[in-house]
Amino acid sequence: MSSILRFDHRFRVAAPLEAVREFHARSDGLGLLTPPPAIVRVTEAPDVLGEGDEMRFTIWFGPVPIRWRARIEQVDEGGFVDRQLEGPFDSWVHTHAFEADGEDATWVIDRIEAAPSRRLPRALIAWGMWGSLRPLFAFRTWRTRRLLRG
């Protein structure tokens, strides 16, 4: 059994809770929050994600495609969970939480718990992705603030 890795990130955005929640429920949000040079292509998902919905997408790192399938779970006013069903990790659970900070600001709180695959080449891909989480979430912070500023 692989050991579980944990990553936590939080930031404040000057936007009401409802706007933040609605933005993160959109399936096109993944592509908007992925920094170049990676490219995300959603191949199957409803426009607005809800409880039990599945999302299939490919993340392109240059010529390397990483295929992923995730299920949306535990949807409520405070956020949701996306769980990898297929991809480079043995397990991946990303909790997206949102907390109001007054009427016009929201804390966005992300927690990822994952176990990289032990099989090559998936293990190399998983560890490479895990190592890129800090710059990825720095970009997501900047991009979310930019897209939601009112």
Task: Give structural notes.
This protein is of the alpha+beta class and 150 residues long. The protein has a single domain (5-148), classed as START domain (Alpha-D-Glucose-1,6-Bisphosphate, Chain A, domain 4, 2-Layer Sandwich), CATH 3.30.530.20. 26% of the residues lie in helices and 45% in strands. The chain is built from 4 helices and 7 strands; from the N terminus they run βααββββββαα. It has helices at 17-25, 29-32, 122-131, 133-148, and strands at residues 5-13, 39-44, 54-61, 64-76, 79-86, 89-100, 106-116. Strands 1-7-6-5-4-3-2 form a 7-stranded antiparallel sheet, covered by helices on one side. A hairpin with a 2-residue loop joins β4 and β5 (79-86). The longest helix has 16 residues, at 133-148. The N and C termini lie far apart (46 Å). The relative contact order is 0.24.
How many helices does DSSP assign?
A: 4
Give the strand content.
35-45%
What CATH architecture would you give? Answer: 2-Layer Sandwich
Q: Rg to the nearest angstrom? A: 15 Å
* Biggest sheet features: 7 strands, antiparallel
Going by helix content, strand content and strand pairing, the class is alpha+beta
